[in-house]
Amino acid sequence: MKMQQLNDTNYLFKSSVNVGYVHEGSQGLLIDAGIDKSAIRKVVRQLEDKDLPITHLIITHAHSDHYGGASYLKQQYDVKVIAPRFESAILQYPILEPTYLFGGNDPIDELRNKFLEGPPVEVDILVDEGPTNIDPFSLEFIETPGHSYQQMAVAINNTLYAADSYFGQDELLKHKIPYITSVEKTIHSLYKLKNLTYSGAVPGHGKYEENYQETINKNIEYHENLLHNVYYTIEKANMISHEEIVARLCQDMNVKVDQLSIFLLFRTAVTAYLTALINQEKIEHYIQHYRWMFKIKGEKGD
Ligand SMILES: [Zn+2]
């Protein structure tokens, strides 16, 4: 995990899950905490080698690959933890993530793994969208829901730390069906970020870029294509069950699904495209023979 300096105050620890860092005098602010103690230790070791302070932590959203290392930071460095109001509910009760993915049932043990559930962490400062002063840091929180319910991108000293509101182009192709809870909110958040001008931006998964608008455009195109794919799959099938459309999209996109937790993530993402098509009144949904079914609006079905 290499430490990359972005400007006078801002840094990036580039890894499969990025961690940001901002230094102001005797204070140092981390942006996200990696998936676990060992991931964040690689970051703090480098900061300590350079005598840089660790005093604050922003958690952009309550996915364990971004907050799994947070409770260690709080214990070891007594950092002030800052998080979006809604996400903080999950940070305090991390079992909520495997619970919502599991359709509300009490999650079985195999779902309670470090990829879906990190150690709980107490949040000290709850934030909503807008400019915020947390001495000595002057921050702008930009609400970017769609990937997580109240995810916040953070702009500070002319760098946009964009959380998972967009993915790097390589990561987008690697994920194939990126995790989202709402495609409309995802696309709306992408347009919102595209119109902001900072000297550079870095997503949670991907590289720092000055010309980040191009990558954001690629993300918008990618979601629009997937939305069309879901529509055409329904059109081709005439009528199709929820279970079947999840399977077909995963098959078409050639994603590897070999365990329940991965399946539930893809099921949620595919459902986000379905709910968008329902909201746009392009498809209809109904229950038939105890199955959740979809067809093109106005078509008869079988
Ligand atoms: Zn995420």
UniProtKB/TrEMBL annotation:
<dbReference type="InterPro" id="IPR050855">
    <property type="entry name" value="NDM-1-like"/>
</dbReference>
<feature type="domain" description="Metallo-beta-lactamase">
    <location>
        <begin position="16"/>
        <end position="205"/>
    </location>
</feature>
<dbReference type="Pfam" id="PF00753">
    <property type="entry name" value="Lactamase_B"/>
</dbReference>
<protein>
    <submittedName>
        <fullName>Glyoxylase, beta-lactamase superfamily II</fullName>
    </submittedName>
</protein>
<dbReference type="InterPro" id="IPR001279">
    <property type="entry name" value="Metallo-B-lactamas"/>
</dbReference>
<dbReference type="InterPro" id="IPR036866">
    <property type="entry name" value="RibonucZ/Hydroxyglut_hydro"/>
</dbReference>
